[in-house]
Every structure is written in structure tokens, then in C-alpha cells.
TrEMBL record:
NCBIfam families: iron-sulfur cluster assembly accessory protein (TIGR00049). InterPro entries: ATAP, ATAP_core_dom, FeS_cluster_insertion_CS, HesB-like_dom_sf. This is Putative iron binding protein from the HesB_IscA_SufA family. One of its GO terms (biological process) is iron-sulfur cluster assembly. It comes from the Bacteria. It comes from Patulibacter medicamentivorans. One of its GO terms (molecular function) is 2 iron, 2 sulfur cluster binding.
């Protein structure tokens, strides 16, 4: 399961209200190989695909492809507005290490890292 906070849901709704063409999908959460720690998050507004897992959190559809799901299961997506910038932040219980800037992460299973 992947959930989003109240603040993140509010920001997703704001985006969808201002971009109605995106309204038939949801917030896609995934990973791709890269960065100094192994993986980077991919967050985008997208339509549901055949092999996606879909979750409902705060009346927002959260989409995740099956390959990414083991790396983000149990995560919470938040929206942070700080002096250093604003944006979505992923709180992921599967992370064992992250780079200093926070843009990439590593999970415990090193074999899984090379598979993606």
C-alpha cells in the first residue's frame, strides 16, 4: 500500500483542478535506477495502465507499476513547503541509505538494485 498525506492530497487536487486533462488518472509513484545511491523516485500524473496497482488515499488514486512496488510499498507521500523549496517528499520504510541531497536512495537487497 502507498498512502498520501492530507497536504499532498490537497496539492494533487490543486494540480488536477488546474489541469483537467490529467483528471482521469492519478499520481504515479515509481522508481528508476540512478543517482549516487542506486534508485530515484518517479512521481508523475498519469493514467492507469494494465499492470498497475492502484490505491485510494484521501480520494486520490495512487498508481504504481508492479516492478517498482517492492521498493515503495508502505511509503507515504507528503508535500513539504520549506525555505529550501517545496515539493512532494517520499517517506519510505524500505530505504537503508540515501544520498546527502535526498534525491536517490538504496534498499537493503543489493540484488534487487541491479535488477531494475
Amino acid at each position: 500500500m502507498i498512502t498520501i498525506t492530507d497536504k499532498a492530497a490537497e496539492k494533487v487536487r490543486e494540480f488536477l483542478d488546474s489541469n483537467p486533462q490529467e483528471g482521469d488518472g492519478g499520481l504515479r509513484v515509481g522508481v528508476r535506477g540512478g543517482g549516487c545511491s542506486g534508485f530515484q523516485y518517479v512521481l508523475a500524473f498519469d493514467s492507469k495502465r494494465d499492470d498497475d496497482m492502484a490505491f485510494n488515499s484521501h480520494e486520490i488514486t495512487v498508481l504504481c507499476d508492479r516492478q517498482s512496488f517492492p521498493y515503495v510499498t508502505g511509503s507515504t507521500i507528503d508535500y513539504v513547503d520549506a525555505m529550501t523549496g517545496a515539493g512532494f517528499k517520499v517517506e519510505n520504510p524500505n530505504v537503508v541509505a540515501a544520498c546527502g541531497c535526498g534525491s536517490s536512495f538504496r534498499v537493503e537487497d543489493e540484488e534487487a538494485v541491479s535488477a531494475v
